[in-house]
Each structure stands twice: as structure tokens, then as C-alpha cells.
Amino acid sequence: MSLTVLATEDWYTHVSLLGRVTELLDDPSLSDMDRLARHHTGAPYHMRDRDRVSAWIDVDRWHCWDAAENRDVPHH
Questions:
Q1: Torsion over CA of 8, 45, 64 and 26, rounded to 10 degrees?
Q2: Where are the alpha helices (H) located in 1-76, listed in sequence order?
Q3: Residue 56, phi then psi, degrees to nearest 5
Q4: 10 vs 23, which has greater pLDDT?
Q5: C-alpha–C-alpha distance, residues 73 and 18, integer Å
Q6: What is the pLDDT of residue 13?
Q7: Is pLDDT at 43 greater than 70 in this prediction?
Q8: Are 16 and 70 in contact (CB under 8 A)?
Q9: What is the 3 state secondary structure string of 44-65?
Q10: Cα distance from N-terminal residue to C-terminal residue, the chain
Q11: DSSP label of 70
């Protein structure tokens, strides 16, 4: 799987992950979705009428660019 997250105002600032999905788990109570939503918005996830699944991944490689770049560690 691959996942890229872009900065809102600057698409050159991003982080990308490449890896394998190792587990898919149903999230009937939306606890994983709520944790993410609270982190980013301060509130529980607002859409409660749909089933959700959490995908756990093993990251093989990652890359970041520009302001998101961590210059203290070597890139993988």
C-alpha cells in the first residue's frame, strides 16, 4: 500500500509511506476513527452511520519533503 499526506497550503510539503497491510480489523465502535478525529479536529468523528475498517501496516519505506522533512535521521 502507499499513502501520501500533503500539506494544506503547499503540496510540495508531504510525507509518503510504502508498505504492506498486515491486518484489517472492523472498528464497530469507531474508536480508531475517533482517535484520529480528536487528534486533528478535537472532536469525535462526526459520521456515525457507516461501518469502518482499520488497516494496520508495516512500513517498508518512507519519504518526506520540504518542511515535513526530518533532517535528524537518514531517509529510508
A1: -150
A2: 31-41
A3: -95, 135
A4: 23
A5: 18
A6: 86
A7: yes
A8: no
A9: CCCCCCCCCEEEEEEEEEEEEE
A10: 16
A11: -
